[in-house]
Amino acid sequence: MSVPILNASGCLDALAAPDVARSLDVFVTKTITPEPRDGNPPVRIAETDHGMLNSIGLQGPGIDAFVADHLPRLGALGVELWVSVGGFSAPDFARCCAMLDDEESVAAIELNLSCPNVEEAPETAAELVAAARAATKRPLYAKLSPAQWDIARGARAVVDAGADGLSLVNTMRGLALDPVTLRPRLARSVGGYSGEALRPIALACVYACANAVDVPIVGMGGVATGLHALELVAAGASAVALGTILFADPLSPARVREELRQEAAARGFANPLAARSVAVAGLEKSLQIALNGTA
Amino acid sequence: MTGVQRERLRVVGTETVGPYVLLRLDRGGLDAGAPGQFFMLEAPGRPLPRPFSLCMAPPGELGFLVEPLGPGTTAIATLGVGNEIHVTGPLGRGFELDVKRPLLVGGGIGVAPFPYLSDHLGVPPALLGFRTAFHAEAAALVPNASVVLDPVLVTEALPSDPGDVLACGPEPMLDALARLVPRAQLAREAPMACGYGACYGCVVERDGRYVRLCLEGPVLREAA
Fold first, then answer.
1. What ipTM, to 2 d.p.?
2. At A247, is the secondary structure helix, strand, or coil?
3. A122 falls in which pLDDT band (50, 70, 90)?
4. Cα–Cα distance, A159 to A162 (Å, whole number)
5. Does the pLDDT value for residue B160 go beyond 70?
6. For chain A, which terminal residue's Cβ has fewer other Cβ atoms within 10 angstroms, N or C?
7. Taking the CA of residue A241 as centre, how many other CA atoms within 13 Å lie in the half-sphere pointing to its CB?
8. Chain A 26-65, CB below 8 Å of chain B: which residues?
9. pLDDT at B1
10. Mean pLDDT, rounded, for A2-13
11. In chain A, what residues touch B6 (CB-CB under 8 Å)?
């Protein structure tokens, strides 16, 4: 059993780079909204010492043009397809999901409940998932923000509302200033922070949620090597997505997959998935030792 | 389209040219591409690579002109012979070479693509502007060039009938050229994370919408 390698939504355009998309086990689209969106004005990206900020703002064709024009071409790529959907209200999520419900090429829908670069919907994440659930029978993955104190509680709420899996984590809001002018480097000031520095945070979120709910988890956040991927699996993820590393290294999917296999084998695991949740199991054991004084 | 090409390349030479560094890499299996296309060069120690248009393509090599400004360009400019970096490319759309009376117009580090471009166009005249005589040492890389120095602007030195202008340089220079020569080909620049259409970071406004400079450009024509 292998650990599927995905791209993080918004980190790859399969139509611009089909060979990169085909090197993944699953391609996840950029978030599609009900209406077309221009996105945010430039400057949209800023590198920082240990990651990057983006403020793209969900630029996209809207769900109607996506289904009519993009979906047939994506379906023909020959790689499993997940569609990320977003919006600004529960009806927005419901509309996008209903449009995709009959599309056989869509293996799953990821609900972007946590874009840091656009206005938030007034409903809770669980209410948005419930609206999506009522609109489609397709598997639903809820993508959560790491910027919450008790993400396990958030995970329970969206699973209770009908999510079939979790995507952990989205970017978290950050700010970078120009060193000379001390003005924000991004046109919209703040952006979503991703890359290396997000990794321990993602790991903690996957770990907390794996303890709280019994659904598949796609782990992501700063993964650049096979060992990073294996750590997310050990924390409870059953699939791993690549984000910022795809910008620096478009050939990273094949590399990370091979490194992951080697890192798992080096630790005596028959396959990478056999390492799933070993960190979580360790927690239970160490708690037991602490409580009972025996192993 | 053979897809995105990326290789680890070895530095085979570096030389200073005024305030700039000419970085020469063993080409490996990478194609040099067309003039005006660009490559993403790994910036050691930094999360993201940096885009550079190809400056020259000696046999078996790729040459890039680097101006050390921030941490990424400084990391690239201080590479030594024998160091290795990952390079992705060639990427984007370069200059349209089917022109009758080419004139290269450049400013500062914007002269970077001109040596390679000049080769392909039969050494056309070039008009280059620089801030100082020190910066203007880069003009030696471009054959058949005349030079103006600050405060004279290249737009002031432009002949009355400039012909087919192919330009690269600071945004205000390109914007001024676009007004004077509407059909000029302008090599633009934008902060870029990936260089191959993945991040949507490098957008510029064209006809009222945002397009990705890495795919539609970097060479754009103001009047299409």
1. 0.95
2. helix
3. confident
4. 5
5. yes
6. C
7. 30
8. 30, 38-39, 41-52, 54, 56, 59
9. 47
10. 97
11. 249-251
- Whether A115 is catalytic is yes
* Residue in the structure block whose two tokens are 């046999």: B59
> Cβ distance A8 to A242 under 8 Å?
yes
Catalytic residue among A11, A97, A115, A209: A115
Q: CA separation (Å) from A47 to A274, B90, B113?
A: 36, 22, 25
User: Looking at the predicted structure, is the pLDDT value of residue A282 above 90?
Assistant: no
Q: What is the full DSSP assignment across B90-147?
A: EESB------SSEEEEEEGGGGTTHHHHHHHTTS--EEEEESSTTGGGGGGGSTTEEE
Measured CB to CB, residues of chain B less than 8 Å from chain A are 3-4, 6, 42, 46-49, 71-72, 86, 88, 190-194, 196-204, 209-210, 215
Burial of A166 from C-beta contacts in 10 A (0-12 / 13-18 / 19+): buried
- DSSP code string of B170-218: -HHHHHHHHHH-TT-EEE-----SSSSSSS--SEEEETTEEEEHHHH-B
Q: What is the pLDDT of residues B68-110, one digit of tens each?
A: 999 999 999 999 999 999 999 999 999 999 999 999 999 999 9
Name residue B92's beta-bridge partners.
Answer: none
Q: Which of B42, B48, B203 lies closest to A44 in CB terms?
A: B203
Spatial contact of B1 and B197, defined as CB atoms under 8 Å apart:
no
Token couple for A120:
């938030």
Distance between first and last Cα of chain B: 24
Q: From the CA of A223, how many Å to the nearest CA of chain B?
A: 12
**pTM above threshold 0.80:** yes
* Inter-chain residue contact B49 with A248, CB threshold 8 Å: yes
